[in-house]
Amino acid sequence: MIRTARHGDLHLITLDRPGRRNAVDGPMAEALADAVGAAERDDAVRAIVLTGAGGAFCAGNDLKAMAAGDFPVPTVDGPPPMAVTRTPPAKPVIAAVEGYCFGGGFELALWADLRVASTTAEFGTLNLAQGLPCLDAATVRLPRLVGQGRALDILLTARRVPAEEAHACGLVDRLTGPGEALERALELAAAVARLPVEARNAARRSVLEQWSLPEDEAARNEARLALRP
Q: What are the recorded GO MF terms, alphabetically (predicted)?
């Protein structure tokens, strides 16, 4: 259900459950966490690309599996349904999105640093229309990407957001033709991987850590990260 492959210093993780539009059940969430953890521990890996098989990224959490009690009971301190989304990834992650990117799958794409999507992609928190809350940080990461107003538009309507709109509002970083998202994501990941690691990582961490800090402290944190021996 999770496939991995190496492309030089890039680590490709594929959600591979096309019969369910790559909807994630409990074992698949655990396998995803294992795959991400292995890539983060491997010093030869410079960037991670996350995609889905069969023309879809991820339709969200598997509702049948949830009804059967396949997921752990959600708690404030426990792991979220997608298992990896509670904290930012340790290495840059680029999501390559074709087709459905809904619910927990949308939250998984938001967890990535960058998103490359084809014109076939659709995004949204369709889970809210089923009375299922966001538990993988969509309500945190989406406003930081697109602003509070646009985020509330997407969240409170639980509508499908087409790729062109997602690109226009900053949710998608690169827009491609149908079937081209993975190729373009690997190209983008290769560009990220070519940068000197120390300076790149310091810049990335400064961006990720600034949100809870006043501007002057965020600037000092940037310097601390940049000058760390």
A: enoyl-CoA hydratase activity
